[in-house]
Design brief:
By secondary structure, the chain is mainly α. It is built from 6 helices and 2 strands, in the order αααααββα. It has a two-stranded antiparallel sheet with strand order 1-2. α2 packs across α3 and α2 crosses α4. The mean pLDDT is about 85.
Length: about 90
């Protein structure tokens, strides 16, 4: 499951999520369609009341696939405190 699917599966719309995050819907679309930072992923997850792992997919995957070469890349997610974001 990808971020777009998770947003829909949890019953959220881009408009609602953007409002909850305090950003515009076009900004959220750019984040989701781009390469979001961990801080942005955390902000989305916080707004939805879920973990970043849940946002990225409920299968507990620890890899992502490079869109350019198709290579599997291992990932490790660490929570970001509000202090670290500034």
């Amino acid at each position: 499951m990808n971020i777009k699917q998770t947003i829909a599966a949890k019953g959220w719309t881009y408009k609602r999520l953007a409002e909850a995050m305090g950003i515009t819907q076009p900004s959220l679309t750019s984040i989701v369609n781009g390469n979001p930072t961990l801080a942005k992923l955390q902000a989305m997850a916080d707004a939805m009341g879920i973990t970043v792992s849940e946002l990225l997919g409920e299968d507990g995957a620890t890899t992502i696939t490079c869109p350019h070469c198709g290579k599997e890349i291992p990932i490790r997610l660490n929570p970001v405190s509000k202090k670290e974001e500034k």
